[in-house]
Write a structure and sequence with these properties.
The complex is a heterodimer of chains A (about 350) and B (about 140). Chain A is about 20% helix and about 30% strand. Chain A has about 350 residues and is α/β, with parallel strands linked by helices. Chain B is mostly helical. The chains are: A alpha/beta (about 350), B mainly alpha (about 140).
């Protein structure tokens, strides 16, 4: 027998194998969504009556659970359910403040939020366009920075990143929902060694966490390892190299899966003479060639007692989490922010568009 | 115990004697053992591959539930639960060797934590008692 779903005051049925998200889409109700795998939180809804089930609440903070929030894409309710869009306390109107480039394929998107918006550096938000196109991005900023800063990997033709790169302009209205996630620095034990490792725009939350830890006076050694497919995926190199020179406890390392060829280095829009090319003594020292998992494992053979932050590609972060745990890190000290790409079934994205969230 | 609930009372007949779960240290002991134990499971070639691609946080919670059962602690597991939870692993080749390995690694964990040989034997007996359910026999 089909269950009933009352959404925003209108009653619908949920077919036996449907999620709440699928039922709402079948009935033509506009609900944002992106990864459809329970990680991006774009499809967050609030239950007013009925039980959304544990699976639909996995990864949500206790405060959100207590307020009835759940993820529509993971929700197979056992019985009838009454729900609505997230309440006003989670959504903030915002405007695009500026859009720039951080290297060849990464956008630096800054947003001005109207009113109060509290978060910890490293958490993530959902960016909603007025037409409800939704993508989640991690925050590279600290609350003290004023604006929210996002690092957005540019995918030509990507629904959100293409719009941000080509058409969006300062002043455009958007909505910011969140913040979400538990991958952030908590003050305490300032001598503990920190290991921050991430791929691609996984650098965004790590950059926020790094600056937050330093602002809190973290005195223990901090190792940041940024991995990318090739040197064009590395960014903030001079900022981080400079920071590592100024902060003796900070060790900054980069690695790429494939070493650059000259043709690759010359093909980008920026004419800079490829400071990231391998093994040169340029800014920040050499770039290692290899898989992030192997590079991190070699740099930190014994992670016992480390506090670890892993951000970016879900396979890399999952593999690293397991490897570091096996090598001695406590799972309690490993914080993961895995970026799940939008599902190709998302109605607002043309099928097959290769696009990573955050 | 096959097909029934494993409960704390089953391991100690004399009320004046502390139950196994109490002697081991209760929830605190599960907490102390779970990471040591699961690390051994992931490092052991007999068991590691059955955990490829699993979510670590969820898996550690499951391992804690298993240790609670093995330590004779309060739980609501039924034989049916254990059968359902392990059915997909049987298809991937899980068998006696893996159950033996898990009991052995659990023993090594408890040795590391300074648990007495008598209590370790009791834990091994409880863990072994669910073998039939885990292997769906």
């Amino acid at each position: 027998m089909n269950r009933r779903l009352v959404y925003d005051g209108v009653e619908h049925d949920i077919e036996p194998h449907e999620t709440v998200l699928e039922a709402l889409e079948r009935h033509g109700r506009g609900v944002p969504s992106a990864c459809r795998a329970g990680t991006c939180h774009s499809c967050l809804l609030q239950a007013l009556d009925g039980d959304p089930g544990e699976r639909a609440r996995r990864g949500l903070k206790d405060t959100l659970r207590a307020a009835g929030y759940f993820l529509a894409c993971q929700c197979h309710p056992a019985g009838d359910i009454t729900a609505g869009p997230p309440g006003g306390e989670l959504s903030a109107p915002a405007r695009i403040a500026s859009i720039g480039w951080l290297g060849h394929r990464t956008l630096d998107v800054r947003l001005t939020v109207e009113g109060e918006f509290s978060y910890s550096a490293g958490q993530f938000v959902t960016l909603l366009r007025p037409d409800l196109l939704a993508r989640s991005y991690s925050l590279a900023s600290l609350p003290a920075d004023g604006e929210l800063r996002l690092h957005v990997r540019h995918h030509p033709g990507g629904a959100m990143s293409g719009w941000l790169a080509d058409r969006a302009a300062p002043g455009d209205p958007v909505t910011v929902r969140g913040p979400y996630g538990t991958c952030f620095y908590v003050p305490g034990w300032p001598e503990q060694p920190l290991l921050l490792a991430g791929t691609g725009t996984g650098l965004a939350p790590l950059y926020g966490i790094l600056r937050d830890a330093l602002r809190h006076g973290h005195s223990g050694p901090i190792r940041l390892v940024h991995g990318a497919l090739d040197a064009r995926g590395l960014y903030l190199v001079s900022e981080l190299s400079e920071l590592a020179r100024a902060v003796p406890t900070l060790d900054y390392q980069r690695c790429v899966l494939a070493a650059d060829t000259d043709a690759d280095a010359a093909s980008g829009p920026s004419p800079k003479p490829s400071p990231e090319s391998s093994s040169g003594p340029g800014p920040g020292g050499e770039v290692r060639v290899g898989d992030l998992v192997d590079v991190v494992t070699r740099l930190v053979p014994d992670p016992t007692g480390h506090r670890v932050f892993l951000c970016g590609d879900p396979d890399v972060t999952r593999t690293l989490q397991r490897r570091l745990f096996m090598n001695g890190a406590s799972n309690r000290d490993i914080h993961v922010d895995a970026f799940t790409p939008p599902a190709s079934t998302t109605p607002t994205v043309p099928p097959g568009t290769p696009q990573a969230t955050r | 115990m096959s097909g029934t609930q494993a409960t704390s009372g089953a391991t100690s007949g004399d009320p004046a004697v502390q139950s196994l779960y109490q002697r081991l240290g209760g929830a605190g002991a599960v907490d102390a053992a779970v990471e040591l134990f699961y690390r051994k499971v992931l490092r052991d070639p007999r068991t590691a591959r059955f955990f490829d691609g699993v979510d670590m946080d969820a898996q550690i919670a499951k391992q804690a539930a298993f240790l609670t059962v093995a330590f004779g602690g309060p739980n609501n597991y039924t034989g049916q639960d254990l059968r359902a939870a392990h059915a997909h692993l049987l298809d991937r080749g899980m068998g006696e060797e893996q159950v033996d390995a898990v009991i052995e690694l659990l023993g090594a964990t408890l040795v590391e934590l300074g648990v007495s040989p008598i209590d370790i034997a009791e834990v091994a007996a409880v863990a072994g008692s669910v073998r039939g359910d885990v292997l769906s026999r």
